[in-house]
């Protein structure tokens, strides 16, 4: 599913974010990415959807070698990857429905299928009654649920979430996690970078800990392992 082999990443300013990562993640896994600030978690996540490229090493997703992928093929790769950000990244002038539908319009899905799929995912995230609202008319938790709906609307094999509960209150965060668990139960691979000790220690999943650009711990049903 996901294979990283001796992956290094050094930025143009000389900062080394990853210093030799080798890992395998299977289809259907739920994986937390943890570690101190500046450890390399965000770079690890960004490499997965080709927002940045490794300086050395190889990354293979669904048997596709991303290291040698031509830029014109990156959008096709991303059709199988849903990405959820801490700051939502919704289009402010589009309604909830339009934000989600846009992800299907760019792949030229039929209008009939778009409507059905958008309403299905809105029901999944509990926002069917907010389809015509604009993002700034929603709470932070509702906006995050819209971003989840947008990420999963085209049935991606992988969902990558970068600190998805970082700006949310505890009750809302648990609601978001229930959605992730439901998505994962349907066979979608979940990779979630997080600083939430409570979530990691309560909802036990695989934990990959990164420090100084290296994997220092990889545990099935692991714990957060850091003071917060």
What does the model show?
- With 228 residues, the protein is of the alpha/beta class.
- It has seven helices and ten strands.
- It has a six-stranded mixed beta sheet with strand order 6-7-8-3-9-10, sandwiched between helices.
- α6 (170-185) links the parallel β7 and β8 (189-193).
- α3 packs across α4 (111-124), α3 (96-105) packs parallel to α5 (140-152) and α5 packs parallel to α6.
- 37% of the residues are buried.
- The mean pLDDT is 93.
Structure classification: alpha/beta
Radius of gyration: 17 Å
Strand order of the largest sheet: 6-7-8-3-9-10
Query: Can you write the helix and strand succession as a string?
Result: EEEHEEHEHHHEHEHEE
- What count of helical segments does DSSP give? 7
What percentage of the residues does DSSP assign to strands (E)?
25-35%
Mean pLDDT: 93
Helix percent band? 25-40%
Separation, N- and C-terminal Cα atoms: 32 Å
Number of strands: 10
Tell me the overall shape: globular
Ranges where pLDDT stays below 50 over 5 or more residues in a row are none
Largest sheet: 6 strands, mixed
């Amino acid at each position: 599913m996901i294979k990283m082999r001796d992956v290094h990443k050094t930025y143009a300013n000389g900062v080394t974010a990853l210093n030799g990562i080798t890992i395998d993640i299977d289809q259907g896994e739920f994986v937390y990415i943890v570690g101190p600030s500046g450890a390399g978690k965000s770079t690890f996540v960004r490499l997965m959807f080709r927002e940045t490229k490794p300086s050395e090493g190889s990354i293979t997703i669904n048997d596709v070698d991303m290291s040698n992928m031509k830029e014109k093929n990156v959008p096709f790769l991303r059709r199988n990857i849903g990405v959820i950000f801490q700051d939502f990244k919704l289009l402010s002038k589009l309604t909830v429905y339009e934000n989600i539908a846009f992800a299907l319009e760019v792949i030229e899905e039929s209008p009939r299928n778009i409507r059905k799929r958008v309403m299905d995912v809105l029901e999944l995230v509990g926002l069917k009654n907010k389809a015509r609202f604009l993002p700034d008319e929603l709470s932070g938790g509702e906006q995050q649920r819209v971003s989840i709906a947008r990420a999963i609307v085209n049935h991606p094999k992988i969902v990558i979430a970068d600190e998805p509960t970082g700006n949310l209150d505890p009750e809302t965060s648990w609601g978001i996690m229930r959605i992730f668990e439901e998505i994962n139960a349907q066979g979608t691979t979940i990779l979630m970078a997080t600083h939430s000790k409570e979530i990691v220690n309560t909802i036990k999943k695989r934990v990959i800990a990164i420090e100084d650009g290296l994997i220092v711990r990889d545990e099935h049903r692991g714990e957060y392992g850091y003071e917060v």
